[in-house]
Design goal:
The structure is a single chain. By secondary structure, the chain is α/β, with parallel strands linked by helices. It has one domain (about 1-290): Alpha/Beta hydrolase fold, catalytic domain (Rossmann fold), CATH 3.40.50.1820. It has helices at about 20-30, 120-135, 155-165, 185-195, 200-205, 215-220, 245-255, 280-290, and strands at about 1-5, 45-55, 60-70, 75-80, 105-110, 145-155, 175-180, 230-235, 260-265. Strands 1-9-8-7-6-4-5-3-2 form a nine-stranded mixed β-sheet, sandwiched between helices. β8 (about 230-235), α7 and β9 (about 260-265) form a beta-alpha-beta unit. α2 (about 120-135) packs across α3.
């Protein structure tokens, strides 16, 4: 199902906009402040576990924060992957699905290696390690990791989608991707045309898209679509100039063609990197409650 405003203003997938470049710089600067952000307090009816170590690839310690509702039975869990161009950000910043605990769903917000530390697929490998850690250890924290979803925003949405594709529907039962990167080849070429000068996709891949074309395709959710994928909920801002909304529209149509259950919500007037309002969050909550039910 496609949900969008009537007669939206389309965003060009090939345009060159100084404003969008400036927006990207502001976006990155905001994410650089992530380490200065404070955590919200533990809320009634939940337990929070901070900085739980789940892997240490090459000695690089990776941790997660667990937000667990106090329920009679172990709770299903949604893994959250933060955005930030694979280079900036923190597991404790802008956790858009944080309030799922109020619906009886745990949230595991994970850290993964940045592209200045390791090139792709290191980031996906870290997500997979976190998923496996939850399956092996989640019960100790009141989590039923046999009922697991994935969610992320921007570059984190890319990781959530590819994680689901590589793990399989039996292990990741649902994905909510917020303004996700779905095609690194097309997005990388778009940034080259805009002469952004800070091509973070190149930094992720360890080279230009053209030189790393196979790796770029492997990192692109749109190239992983098949009928065995879990249900998808995609939310994208109508006026996004960082990742044009057309990318999510292409992804959504391809999911439908593969007969994957999918819904796309295009949010009027929104650009990139926004918080979900109450109505949008309610949709996300319903989506995971339905698909992570026992």
């Amino acid at each position: 199902m496609l949900t969008r405003a009537p007669d939206p203003q389309q965003v060009s997938a090939t345009g060159n906009s100084a404003a969008s470049i400036g927006w990207l710089c502001c976006f990155i600067a905001a994410l650089l402040l992530a380490g200065c952000s404070t955590y919200g307090p533990e809320r009634p009816g939940e337990k929070v576990y901070r900085d739980v170590l789940f892997a240490a690839p090459g000695g690089h310690k990776l941790r997660m924060d667990l937000y667990v509702p106090k329920t009679a039975k172990p709770a299903p869990v949604v893994m959250w992957m933060f955005g930030g161009c694979w280079r900036f950000g923190s597991k404790g910043y802008h956790v858009n699905v944080r309030d799922l605990t109020s619906a009886g769903i745990a949230v595991a917000s994970i850290q993964y290696r940045m592209s200045n530390c390791a090139v792709y697929p290191a980031q996906l490998e870290d997500c997979r390690a976190a998923a496996q850690w939850l399956r092996d250890n989640g019960a100790r924290y009141g989590i039923d990791a046999k009922r697991m979803g994935a969610s992320g925003e921007s570059s984190g949405g890319q990781l959530a989608a590819v994680l689901a594709a590589t793990e399989g529907k039996s292990r990741i039962q649902a994905v909510c991707a917020l303004y996700p990167v779905t095609d690194l080849i097309e997005l990388g070429r778009l940034y080259e045309k805009r002469s952004v000068g800070l091509n973070l996709i190149e930094k992720l891949l360890g080279g230009s898209v053209e030189k790393k074309i196979d790796l770029a395709a492997d990192a692109s959710p749109v190239y992983h679509i098949n009928s065995s994928l879990p249900p998808f909920l995609i939310i994208h801002g109508e006026r996004d100039k960082i990742i044009p909304v057309e990318h999510s529209e292409w992804f959504f149509r391809t999911l439908e063609e593969a007969r994957v259950e999918a819904q796309l919500i295009v949010v009027p007037g929104k650009g990139h990197w926004f918080r979900l309002n109450n109505e949008q969050f309610a949709e996300v909550s319903r989506f995971f409650q339905v698909h992570l039910a026992r």
